[in-house]
């Protein structure tokens, strides 16, 4: 989880969250394996066979949801698939970011490419081409409960309906397709339903959030280690013997991360007996960060199943004798939603500890350094106000940490009388991790300004030094009050991009 960019990703085998992020965020080229193509074509052949036999299949030759008892004639099946896209493209408000739309499209390819959906290969090739040629459908972000609306806006582009971006310019879908040399598709039976069904938007958007949360959690270990170092904390609280008697894996790994950060630090070595016990925001880093990371890695396990699963409804079982449409509820987003709700709680806990460490850095009564880490305080406010920003962000995070998935509002004339709300869990997870990155950036800004107050004869650890040198390339230290917004943005981007994580891992090896 270092933001590593892969140049291409082949679908048809199990893909990782790293590969997922490479396509959605970094534009890796998407290919289909032979097995991917074969299973899609087999499923499409099978659904046509069942239609010829007159088999009644939900969403193929019936209406949708509460209208599932309404039979649709064979002549009307294509119109049915177009109608579902037009009627369901009802999300509203500001558009989703490009990487979120790309993530949803990639999830559609993963979902339908499992070979249980009865779609044409050409339809999936069209999504692949949109990803590879940089066409991003316009999809408003508000008003989904788990699936359907956002996906319908995206799928309309295949029909030349709706709008899309090409190289950042918004235009009609017909213009967009013409510009990149693509022709619109005629949908076959079930394809409209398949393109909008399942957990594709919660999983796609949530995967990006989780990708960033895991990077941020590892970066939090780095920043916490630097705060511990500059606050002259004792590393005795990180002793592996202490970790071994409460053997939570992520607690032990976090302690190891911080120890390795500081093992060659003269500051840490000189401070080990400075005090018997530090405040909890310093000595409980392994316990809190570890608990949060355990939640994130539990979510990763769930996501890598969901990313490589079929969440369509109905599925077309690919057996010549037993094959047919099996309707159920694999489209339910509870797995994704509950994991993201839990992850939001976990990273909000990381943020609350970061804010407390930052408070210790800028509070002269706790740090022993000049007030707000600036000389001539009074005339200068120094780093007083960024902690206010942390407080405001943390308040937002606490509100957003309220779980979406405990709510349920019935839809579709009570055919969907329970709703998982996984989409909102994914949407708020993006906001939560963005705020976490800012909170960590502000702590890092304070730590960066605290180091010069340590005796020059005491050098930091080599990993800390690498981070300090990188920051110094872009951020000048405060002598008198200065405009702080650009500095916070720079540090936030170093965290978001994974650059700080990469710098440290080059020095001490992979963090866990």
How are the elements arranged and paired?
Elements: E1 8-11, H1 17-24, E2 29-32, H2 34-52, H3 77-88, E3 92-95, H4 98-112, H5 121-132, E4 135-137, E5 140-142, H6 149-156, E6 163-166, E7 169-172, H7 173-180, H8 191-196, H9 200-230, H10 240-244, H11 249-262, H12 266-271, H13 280-283, H14 285-306, E8 315-316, E9 325-326, H15 334-362, H16 364-367, H17 384-400, H18 422-450, H19 462-472, H20 485-496, H21 499-508
Helix pairs in contact: 1-4, 3-6, 4-5, 4-9, 9-11, 9-14, 9-15, 9-18, 11-14, 14-15, 15-17, 15-18, 17-18, 18-20, 19-21
Structure in words:
This protein is mainly alpha-helical and 512 residues long. It has two domains: 8-197, Fumarase/aspartase (N-terminal domain) (Fumarase C, Chain B, domain 1, Orthogonal Bundle), CATH 1.10.275.10; 206-508, Up-down Bundle (Fumarase C, Chain A, domain 2). The protein is 55% helix and 6% strand. It contains 21 helices and nine strands. The strands form four sheets. It has a three-stranded antiparallel sheet with strand order 4-6-7. The protein is elongated, with a radius of gyration of 26 Å. The N and C termini lie close together (10 Å). 50% of the residues are buried. The mean pLDDT is 93.
């Amino acid at each position: 989880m270092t933001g590593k960019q892969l140049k291409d990703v082949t679908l048809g085998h199990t893909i990782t969250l790293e590969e997922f992020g490479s396509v959605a965020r970094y534009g890796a080229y998407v290919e289909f394996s032979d097995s991917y193509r074969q299973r899609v074509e087999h499923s499409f052949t099978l659904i046509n066979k069942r239609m010829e036999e007159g088999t009644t299949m939900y969403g193929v030759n019936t209406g949708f949801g509460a209208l599932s008892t309404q039979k649709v004639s064979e002549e009307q099946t294509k119109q049915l698939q177009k109608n579902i896209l037009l009627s369901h493209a009802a999300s509203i408000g500001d558009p989703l970011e490009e990487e979120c739309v790309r993530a949803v499209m990639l999830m559609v390819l993963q979902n339908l490419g499992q070979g249980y959906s009865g779609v044409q290969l050409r339809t999936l090739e069209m999504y692949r081409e949109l990803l590879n040629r940089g066409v991003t459908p316009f999809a408003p972000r508000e008003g989904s409960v788990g699936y359907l609306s956002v996906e319908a806006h995206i799928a309309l582009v295949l029909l030349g309906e709706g709008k899309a971006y090409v190289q950042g310019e918004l235009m009609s879908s017909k213009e967009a397709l013409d510009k990149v040399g693509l022709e619109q598709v005629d949908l076959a039976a079930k394809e409209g339903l398949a393109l909008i069904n399942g957990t594709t938007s919660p999983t796609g958007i949530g995967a990006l959030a989780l990708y960033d949360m895991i990077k941020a959690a590892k970066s939090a270990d780095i920043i916490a280690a630097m705060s511990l170092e500059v606050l002259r904390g004792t590393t005795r609280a990180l002793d592996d013997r202490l970790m071994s008697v409460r053997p939570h894996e992520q607690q032990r790994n976090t302690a190891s991360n911080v120890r390795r950060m500081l093992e060659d630090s003269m500051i840490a070595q000189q401070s080990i007996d400075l005090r018997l016990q530090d405040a909890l925001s310093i000595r409980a880093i392994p316990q809190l960060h570890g608990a949060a990371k355990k939640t994130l890695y539990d979510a990763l396990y769930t996501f890598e199943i969901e990313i490589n699963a079929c969440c369509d409804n109905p599925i077309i079982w690919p057996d010549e004798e037993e094959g047919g449409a099996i309707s159920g509820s694999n489209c339910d987003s509870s797995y994704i939603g509950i994991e993201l709700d839990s992850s939001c709680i976990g990273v909000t806990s990381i943020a609350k500890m970061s804010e407390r460490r930052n408070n210790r850095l800028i509070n002269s009564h706790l740090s022993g350094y000049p007030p707000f880490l600036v000389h001539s305080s009074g005339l200068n406010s120094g780093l007083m106000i960024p902690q206010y920003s942390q407080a405001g962000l943390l308040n937002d995070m606490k509100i957003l940490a309220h779980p979406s998935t405990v709510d349920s509002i019935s839809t579709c004339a009570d055919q969907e009388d329970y709703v998982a709300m996984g989409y909102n869990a994914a949407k708020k997870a993006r906001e939560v991790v963005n705020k976490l990155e800012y909170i960590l950036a502000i702590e890092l800004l304070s730590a960066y300004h605290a180091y010069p107050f340590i005796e020059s004869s005491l050098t930091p650890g080599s990993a800390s030094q690498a981070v300090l040198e990188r920051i110094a390339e872009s951020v000048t230290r405060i002598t008198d009050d200065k405009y702080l917004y650009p500095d916070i943005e720079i540090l936030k981007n170093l965290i978001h991009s994974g650059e700080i994580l990469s710098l440290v891992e080059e020095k001490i090896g992979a963090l866990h």
